[in-house]
Design a protein that fits this description.
With about 80 residues, the protein is mainly alpha-helical. Helices cover about 90% and strands about 0% of the residues. The longest helix has about 55 residues, at about 1-55. The termini are far apart.
Amino acid sequence: MALMDKLNFAAKIATEKANEAIGSGKLAVKIKKEEYSIEEQYKKIGEYYYQKRVEGIDLDPEVDEFCLAIDLSKATITEL
């Protein structure tokens, strides 16, 4: 019976490790989902300020530089 007890113990440990790995994988997916959501909000903020510049509203100089870089990229795309 000692062999059977050892096998059962090994199976139990293997199952626990597998469940931990699955749990870690699910957690990693949830974290990635939240990171993607943050990136999407950053994009919306950028689009908001870019639209304000298009409307003629003065922006901070740093933001205006970013918008100018977008304008230059759009011009390059048009040329291409």
